[in-house]
Specification:
The protein is mostly helical. The chain folds into three domains: 196 residues, no CATH class; 140 residues, no CATH class; 206 residues, MFS general substrate transporter like domains (Growth Hormone, Chain: A, Up-down Bundle), CATH 1.20.1250. The chain has a two-stranded antiparallel ribbon with strand order 1-2. The chain has a two-stranded antiparallel ribbon with strand order 3-4. The longest helix has 30 residues. The protein is globular and about 75 Å long. 35% of the residues are buried.
Length: 561
């Protein structure tokens, strides 16, 4: 099987398709889970061969007169590779569905024939190429080639074949598009391989190493664009060992009290942020920013790697254990913390779940909350300055934000376990809406008003643990990781567009009254969605739609038994 992969990976024919056909001839005595992982991971060797072969063209740093220099042409190439990879990331949730429905030798054979014919047509009709060097590839070309790469989601479709066809139609030479295809395979196949083999602890480890390495690199970067790229990659590393991974781990290990446990992460995060803000300033002034970034990078990576390897574990069932149930004593009685948050395990596939209004209510809420919060936070100094506060008073209000984070966000988790996540969400968003709507009044109160709006800003930041606290009880532990990822993605999108939106409104009106009023409207919509879209009626609708899948699951289990 390795020989077939090695020969077919870099030819414009589907290596996976040929391995599927080989499995029809040679039967392997292995579980389907192992084979699914093996088909992806076996391609990692071919990817590493490309990295070794083209290392000189891929590494963005070099030496000149004893100094480390950056290679702008290599960075430009990597930017285009990233641009071409974005379409694949967007459609990646469909991969499992395509594999479940079209992963068979008939589909593979049909696609091999189709692309063979397509190559003949393209070769006979294409004009002389106008792009013969990688430097001539535009971002438009890269994105279009990335769209062609999306066709590889169909079993039997060659990823390199699809991108080469797309490149040839765009007017790229054979050599140019083939080389770009090689580079394009590195993030796609390496990422797919990692997703198949990584355990939770190694997700933390990779995230820690990535953050540490990039922190060091940023300290020695003199190119502004390079700093932007490093910051982007730092954000990826942060997601690896940040709130989303924390939520998934909490969901896996705790059958109750998820809100309380999730919120502890925020409390610790707030304390560390408060301490490190001072430490960063002191050490940077003592040693210089470059030396500090070097020290901080290695320390950060070391701490995360050690803690990840020692303390992070996969789901308890892998160790013959059951999920933890948190209990507390109430006089002579013992009650289960978070017992009211009953988990309903949906049986329908994700593709069908996407048609359910309840899921969209869950995905829209964190988006709106983050959007509302970012409108204030991204313009915090300007908002407080418009209230007549001086620099010292503004710094007091900024400190209030950190204090509030350590109070309000953990409190959300505790209250979710006591009175339900839905009710707590409504309460918090009512408070958040009032805080934004009353800005005109609080702006007349000077420092006191600034502290009020800064403190209650964190009422909306509970979206950080939306997946574990809100989504899991509604859709189940098995769907938690996927839905938590979507919740975090919606939060990230909101955080990206809200600053631009708020700045545009401020520029047009000369005031923050309208932007903050819109933020209040966002909170109000969340209240409505939580009250109606997440009501018992909405949950019953989900269960009714899920009933046929539950029955099929029961029949399958009975047949297996």
């Amino acid at each position: 099987m390795g020989i077939v992969e090695g020969i077919t990976e870099w030819l414009p024919i589907s290596s996976t398709g040929h391995m599927i056909l080989l499995e029809q001839i040679i039967k392997f005595n292995a579980s389907e889970e192992f084979m699914s992982m093996f088909r992806v991971v076996i391609q990692l060797g071919a990817i590493m061969a490309v990295v070794v072969l083209f290392w000189g063209k891929l590494w963005p740093f070099g030496m000149k007169q004893g100094r480390v220099i950056s290679k702008p042409s290599v960075w430009s190439l990597w930017f285009k590779v990233v641009a071409a990879t974005i379409p694949v990331l967007i459609i990646s949730p469909l991969d499992d569905w395509m594999e479940a429905h079209f992963y068979n030798y008939i589909t593979v054979a049909a696609m091999l024939i189709l692309y063979g014919a397509l190559f003949f047509v393209v070769e006979n009709r294409r004009a002389a190429p106008h792009v013969s060097r990688l430097e001539q590839i535009t971002y438009r070309d890269a994105i279009i080639i990335g769209l062609w790469q999306c066709l590889a989601i169909i079993p039997g479709t060659s990823r390199s074949g699809a991108t080469i066809v797309g490149g040839l139609l765009l007017g790229l030479s054979r050599a140019c598009v083939a080389e770009f295809t090689f580079y394009l395979a590195i993030p796609v196949m390496a990422g797919a391989s990692l997703l198949k083999v990584l355990k939770t602890k190694y997700v933390y480890v990779i995230g820690g190493i990535l953050q540490g390495a990039l922190l060091v690199t940023m300290g020695y970067s003199t190119n502004l664009m390079l700093v932007y790229v490093m910051a982007f990659l730092f954000g990826i590393g942060n997601k690896f060992c940040g709130a989303m991974t924390h939520q998934i781990n909490v969901t896996n290990w705790f059958a109750s009290g998820r809100g309380t446990i999730s919120s502890m992460g925020t409390l610790v995060s707030g304390l560390i942020n408060a301490i490190m803000a001072t430490v960063t300033g002191v050490l940077s002034s003592m040693f210089g920013y470059q030396t500090y970034s070097l020290i901080a990078g290695f320390v950060l990576a070391g701490i995360i790697v050690v803690l990840g390897l020692l303390f992070v574990c996969d789901a308890p069932e892998k160790y013959g254990m059951q999920q933890i149930v948190l209990k507390e004593k109430e006089g002579k009685k013992t009650r289960t913390i978070g017992a009211d948050s009953k988990v309903y395990e949906t049986a329908m596939p994700i593709s069908k779940l996407l048609r359910q209004p309840l899921l969209w209510a869950v995905l829209v809420c964190p988006f709106l909350m983050q959007f509302a919060c970012t409108i204030y936070y991204s313009n915090q100094s300007l908002v407080l300055g418009s209230m007549g506060l001086d620099v010292v008073q503004i710094s007091y209000c900024v400190s209030i934000v950190s204090i509030s984070q350590m109070i309000l966000v953990p409190l959300f988790g505790v209250l979710s376990d006591v009175i339900s996540a839905r009710k707590t969400l409504i309460i918090y968003c009512v408070v958040g809406a009032a805080n934004m709507f009353l800005f005109s009044l609080t702006s007349q109160m000077g420092l006191i008003g600034g502290m009020i709006i800064a403190f209650f800003y964190n009422a909306g930041m509970v979206n950080l643990y939306f997946g574990a606290v809100v989504a899991t009880p509604l859709f189940g532990v098995n769907k938690s990781a996927t839905i938590t990822g979507w919740c975090n993605a919606s939060v990230s999108v909101a955080a990206m567009i809200a600053p631009v939106f708020a700045a545009g409104l401020y520029g047009a009106t000369g005031s923050f009254v309208l932007p903050l009023a819109i933020a209040g409207c966002c909170f109000t919509v969340v209240v409505i969605l939580a009250a109606i879209g997440m009501s018992s009626k909405a949950r019953k609708h989900l269960e009714a739609a899920d009933k046929p899948y539950k029955e099929a699951e029961t029949i399958a289990e009975a047949g297996g038994a």
